[in-house]
Every structure is written in C-alpha cells, then in structure tokens.
Amino acid sequence: NVVFLQKLRNDRNLEIKYLRNLIDSLNICLIALRNPCMGRLTSCLVKNLEKGKLVMRTESFSSRHVLQALPKLPVPNLKDTLDRYLSCMKHLLTEEQFNKTQNIVTQFGAPGGVGELLQSKLTDRSENMANWVYDYWLNDMYLNNRLALPVNSSPAMVFPQQNFKAPIDSLRFAAHLISGVLEYKTHLDDRNLPADYARGQLAGTRLCMEQYYRLFTSYRLPGPERDTLVAQESSVMPEPEHIIVACKNQFFVLDVMINFRQLNQRDLLTQLEKIVKMADNEEEQLPPIGLLTSDGRTEWAESRSVLMRESTNRDSLDMIERCLCLVCLDDASGPELSDTTRAMLMLHGGGLTKNGGNRWYDKPMQFIVGADGCCGVVCEHSAFEGIVLVQCTEYLLKCMIGSPSKLVRAASVSELPAPRRLRWKCTPEIHKLITSAADKLQRMVKNLDMNVHKFHDYGKEFIKKQKMSPDAYIQVALQLGFYRCHGRPVSTYESASLRRFQQGRVDNIRSATPEAFAFVKAMTEGKNSTSVEKMELLKGAITAQTSYTRLAITGMAIDNHLLGLRELAHEMKMGKLEMFKDEAYLISNQFILSTSQVPTTVEMFCCYGPVVPNGYGACYNPQSDHIIFSVSSFHNSQQTCSAEFVKCLVQGLRDIRDLCNKCNADCAATEERKGQTQEPKKEVRLLLANRP
Ligand code: COA
C-alpha cells in the first residue's frame, strides 16, 4: 500500500479517495499516518468511529474533530399516538365511522393488548438500529409504490428561465453546470460539506448529512414487487467517473476524468459539442429506451429483464446505473414558456413528441438544459429530500449566476477521445414495450393539471410581524383555500424534517387540525362571528399547527409510529390487524392535500404531482415579500381543479391578511381610545399636584 500511495502522491484528490475507501473497507482501522491529507479524511474517520471501528489517532486528527453522534429517533408513547390519531381523525369522519374507530383504537391500546406487545418490540428495534423507521418508511413511501416515477413521485426544481441567444449558449451552460457538479462531488468525496443546522422552529440543532452522500452515488433499481435503492459500493481503487448525457433520446457516456486529469469547462464544452453532432446523425439513431423508465415500476422491471438478455444492453444499463448523474440536453419545447409550462416540462418532459424520452428516471439527479432556456433538475426522490436537493442546486446555481464572464467562451483544443454512444439491441418485444410506455406517458402529460402561482400581495415578513410562524400560517391558509373550494376538510400531509436524528428522513404534520377546521368554518360559514372571534380561532389554528410541527420535528408525530407498529405486526405474521384494516386508517392515509415547504435563497421553485388520483400536490416557497405556490392535480378527476384551488387559496390568504389588519387596527384604535381617556386623568393629576 505504501508503495502504491507514493505513486498516487502527484494526485492529491486520488490519494484522498484511495485512503478514504481503504479506511472504509477495513474492519479495524489503525491510522498511524502522518499524512497532510489527514484533515480531509476527518469525516471519513468520524463515520468509521461512529460505526464502532477502532481508530488510532495521530496528532493531525485531534479529538475536536470527533463530533457527537446525532441522537437516535425516539419511539413515541403508545397512548399519546393513539389519542392524537383519534383527535386528528374525528372531524374527518362521520360520527358512525368515528365511534367504530374509537372502539378499535381502544381495543388496540388496551393494557396487555396487541398494541403494547408491538410497542415493546418497536422499542427493542429502536435499541438495535440506528433508525427504527428508516427501512419501513423508505419501502412504504417509495420502494413499494408501483406508480410511474414522473409526476407521481419525482419532484423537480425549475431554474430561472435562461436566455440562450445561440445553440452553443445552452452547451456552455451545461458545461458550467457539470463543472459545478464535479466541484461539489469533490466536497462530498472529501466528506467536508459543512454540517447543516436547523433553522426556524427549534433552530440551531445539527442535522444529519447522510442524504447528501446519496446525491451522486445511488440508483433506484426497479423490481417486480419492490424497488431497491442501490448505493454504489466504495471500492479501494475507484473507477474514473462519468456522466450520462441524453440528447435526442440517445445516451452518451461523458468521461469526466481522462488520463488522470479531470476535464475542465472548455473540455466539457468540446465533448458536449461532439455529443450534439453525434446525436444529430440520423443513421445512428436508436429507439428512445429512456421511455421505459417512465413506465410503472413493475412494468419497467419486466422490460429491464427483457433488455438484460442482451449483453450490449447490459453494458449500457451498467454505464447508466453507475454514472454520477444525467445531463439532458433538451430540444426547444414550444413557444409558450410560462412558469406553469416549465414546471410541467420538468415533471414529464412533454411526452414522446417533446423530451419525454430524453430521460432516465431511476437516476437521482437529472439536470435538464433546454435549448429554449427551460432548465432545471428532476430527482428520483427515494434517496433524499427536497431540502438537500435545494442545497446542492443552490451551490451549483450560485457558481453560475451573475458571472457570465465565467462561462466558457471557446471550446478546448485538446484532443479528447469522443464520448461513446450507448448501444441498445432492441427486439420487436422491446419496441412494443417502448410504445406502451410512450402511450402511458402521453396520457400522463395530458392529465397533469398544473398551476404555478406567484402570490405577490405579501410574504413571510408580514406574517412574522403578526408574531406567527409563516409555515403554520400558510398551512392554515391552505386549509382555508381547500375548504372554500371543496366544502370539507381532508387528510393533509406536510413533510417535517427528521434530520435532527441519525438517518432521519421525514414524518407528517397532519395540518388538517380540529382547530384549523374551526377557523375555516368561521371564515366561510360564520357570518355571525365577529373579527375578534375569528382572530381567536386563527390564533388557535396557528398554535395547534406550530405545536404539531414541533412534535413532528422532534420525532413525536403519529404517522411513522403507526407505520412501525403496522410493519412489525406484518413481520410477526399477525395478519392484518383491525386497527390497520379500519376505514379510518385508510382515509387517514389518503392525502388529498399533499403539501411541502421547499424554500430557496436563489430564484427557482420546486414542484411535484398529487399523491392520490383525486388530490392536490401543493408545494410552496415562502420569500420575504411573496410566496410561490406550485399546485398540481389531475384533469381526469371530477373533484379537482388546480386553477380553482389556487383562486380559493389566494382569496384565503387575502382574507387572513385582512383579518389580521382589521384586528391590528381595532387594537390600535382601542389603545388610542384608552390613551385618550387616560389623558384627562393625567391632567387632573397635574392639576392636583400643582394645587397649592
Ligand atoms: N413570530 C415571528 N417569527 C416567527 C414565528 C413567530 N411566532 N415563528 C417562526 N418565526 C420565524 C422563524 O424564526 C423563522 O425565521 P428565519 O426565516 O429567520 O429562519 C421563520 O419564521 C420560519 O419559521 P416557520 O415558518 O415557523 O417554519 P420553519 O422554518 O421552522 O419550517 C417546517 C417548518 C415544518 C417546514 C420545517 O421544520 C421542516 O421540517 N422543513 C423540511 C420540509 C421538507 O422536508 N421539505 C421537503 C420535502 S421533499
């Protein structure tokens, strides 16, 4: 090893990568190096320490580097969860449904009953695992889901519209983006990304960083019943990395390291130009294989096994599965490029007639660079949450924004081997499968009812001035908008980050609280309620929402807990328990309103599809003086209409603002009156004091 290391010395990055992988692959690490790279190995050593491996430290690796491991996700108390479940559901059920559910829940939670047994097993599980819910949650939320990834699962970030004056501009943009990815990947490889700390509610806590390390190293492999999230194994001697570039539905391997040298932006531009030329060669065109990845997961798993029969296809699949990410060079999509159209194009590519085949949905990161300036990133969601995606994307955009001079001007002159086109051997069976996938994607394209709305009346600063949590306020407004639109409250999902804990992902804030219901009823039906009464109800709704948020981010929400109990019962072969067969449990998991806050500090926004056929996806990005809403639903549902929902939401936001302003004005007037009535008293006091 020592001899080998000396050989690597002239490439510091390679040396670090080698050392890191070496340490990872050993069972016991005896680090006795006096190596200048030691600082850059810190987090790798910490990770191994946390895994319980013995690490002998050198002077350059001091104890200050050893961070305290994050706490484990707690298991909430059974009774608390069951009580909370009933209170979350009562107003969403009929009286008859609720009475039935109450009996089932009481029986489940009875002393010595099945609930207690499962709870004690769950506690054991939590003691033996870093995160007791992680696998259950990942399977339930993503890997078991058989629906196609575009729209149903993969969210997208939509970049600001780019103004490409000539075709080469989009390639320059792509080259710049790739070079940012490579820079970011170096930080990831060195494990030296600065740790994130929580902001907003319960600010200041250190957050789990694991999701970042999956950005460019994982792959969602389709399976007949369940997909697998594959993490790339770190090998002692890593292979040179590559990116897959999609252009005109063709896939090309772009090696980013050639002859031990990482390509610079000029090189990248040269290679991208070659790819565009190769893609234009009509004689070489291969069928749009990428469409298969937009199919239902079981269908794609079947098509993949058909593809795998040919060694050419196996090699091509292997290259895609091991790439860092995809860069999709899209053709222009049409004249109208509103925020809404751009969001739709990000989510589904516009189907076969546009760029729907220019994708590979299993890969976590697909950067889209449209010739018409429609750019963004589409993500396979099982590996990480939107917040991590935003952090990475902002890093990349910040490298690029405001620095046109930094954009590469001329292509490299160095002789680089041409990128390789991935070959596919397509039997008639595969052609049929592609046609079937294309038809389904086309239906999805037609069905998506998207509405991106920039609400400019006010933003989170106004809300903070009311001494209210902006997130809670927006959630209450969403409840009001929904009620106004549909006349009933529904199970609502709001993602709450669990990154305060080891391997933390998310749990659910059930925003359709009874308090929010009371408020929305007063606002829509309570003609006789006074502003003061409405204001009291608003404050109650905000307080309830804020408390639920705090519960959720500290691991005390109910959804993951109930899921854990359910999955344990399944593992213990208890059959389907009444508790989880109950209609109320099914209703509780039908998230007709699926919401998420995805804030950004760079101009861009996130969007995703609904999670049920008759529901809405509602993503929001609160800024100081405006809020961006991306609302989605399906045209074929008789019950939903994104434009109508947005209209009601906007009216709700205005009504709440007016209510706050009226109550503030009334308060100020009362204060003033109080002041005026007190004035004479002061005068009287003065007169009395001046009396001889
Ligand atoms: N008065 C004045 N200001 C207040 C306030 C009050 N009563 N309550 C909160 N604020 C301030 C906060 O201090 C914070 O200030 P900052 O902008 O300076 O940091 C700001 O308002 C925002 O706080 P809040 O609106 O309460 O929300 P939050 O930032 O705590 O976010 C969640 C709440 C649930 C969204 C967040 O905890 C979370 O989990 N985010 C992850 C969501 C996610 O995973 N999304 C992606 C899914 S793919």
From TrEMBL:
EC numbers on record: 2.3.1.6
EC supergroup of this enzyme: transferase
Signal sequence interval, chain numbering: none
GO cellular component, one term: cytoplasm
Keywords: Acyltransferase, Neurotransmitter biosynthesis, Transferase
Catalytic activity: choline + acetyl-CoA = acetylcholine + CoA
Every Choline/carnitine acyltransferase domain range: 73-650
Molecular-function GO terms, alphabetical: choline O-acetyltransferase activity
Gene3D superfamilies: Chloramphenicol acetyltransferase-like domain, Choline/Carnitine o-acyltransferase, domain 2
A biological process from GO: neuromuscular synaptic transmission
Residues the record marks as active site: 381
Sequence similarity: Belongs to the carnitine/choline acetyltransferase family.
Free-text function comment from the UniProt entry: Catalyzes the reversible synthesis of acetylcholine (ACh) from acetyl CoA and choline at cholinergic synapses.
Protein name: Choline O-acetyltransferase
Gene: chata
